[in-house]
Amino acid sequence: MFEKILSTKKKAKAVKTSDSSTLQDITDGKYYRQLLEDGQFLASENCISGLFNTDVIPLYKSSHVKLWPIFLAINEIPLRQRFSRESMLLVGIWQGKGSPPFLQYMNAFGEEMCHLYHRGIDVNILGSIITIKLGVFAGIVDLQAKGYILNMTMHKGESGCSTCEEPGRTVKQGKGHSRCYPYRETKDRFPLRDSDDIKYNLGPKATTEREKNKGIIGIRQWSVINAMV
After folding, report:
1. CA-CA distance, 21 to 15, in Å (whole number)?
2. Bridge partners (DSSP) listed for residue 71
3. Is residue 103 located within the same domain as residue 214?
4. Domain span at residue 167?
């Protein structure tokens, strides 16, 4: 498997941006290939990248007990094998009623990922001990989990968009109400969010679970954000 990982990185590094008109995998992306350049994280053969996913799973139909696993996929494993049961890594799991305490849960996950990024883990490959480092650069979650992880208002709430500061508005729909995000002319659009705004400008202003600032609730998942940057 390690040979396949090295082969994937070698092929991605050989592809020039101008030669890639179709994106078939994450390894075709411009950002991924930048990480393969000299001096970048993936330039070393012993460094790999990962993609995480988390979602709720009911334990069984007649129970309110739920599972929130965190799975990790290695981007350098060939696509046909990457998401197979044998290749996916279960790196965290929470069981209980309702939702987990995401601040603590995701912070613990982020701290482990930071450790793998900076220090790595020793692996025995064909009789040789090699220190493998892992960088998690992306995650895939649904809108509900996204709100929990980012500690934001849900997509149905005011300022629930993670891309911009558009608050949306409430409109009548059938017998109830729904939040919509209307089209706005360029001059009337709300500013886009950026990492500095989320991590620094909003951080000190919203410090409790109930306090909201532009859709941000309380303190952010700092370890997760730092691990992903």
Report:
1. 11
2. 53, 90
3. no
4. 141-229
Domain final position from 140, 167, 185: 140
In this structure, are 12 and 100 located in the same domain? yes
pLDDT for residue 227 is more than 60: no
* Closest to 54 (Cα-Cα) out of 42, 37, 71, 36: 71
Domain end residue (candidates: 121, 140, 159): 140
DSSP-derived secondary structure for 99-157: ---HHHHHHHHHHHHHHHHHT-EEEEETTEEEEEEEEEEEEE--HHHHHHHHTB--TTS
Q: How many CB atoms lie within 10 A of CB 68?
A: 20
| Tens of pLDDT, residues 101-123 | 888 888 899 999 999 999 999 99
CA–CA gap between residue 152 and residue 90 (Å, rounded): 25
Domain identity same for 106 and 146: no
Backbone angles phi, psi at 63, to 5 degrees: -120, 150
Tens-digit pLDDT profile for residues 79-92:
889 999 999 999 99
- The H-assigned helical ranges of the chain are 2-14, 30-34, 79-82, 102-118, 143-150, 195-196, 222-228
List pLDDT tens digits, range 172-218.
888 888 888 889 999 999 999 887 777 766 655 544 555 677 888 76
Coil/strand/helix, residue 13: helix
For 225, the token pair is 């954000």
- Give yes or no for residue 159 having a pLDDT over 90: no
Contact 21, 6 (CB under 8 A): no
- The number of folded domains in the chain is 2
**Predicted structure pTM score:** 0.78
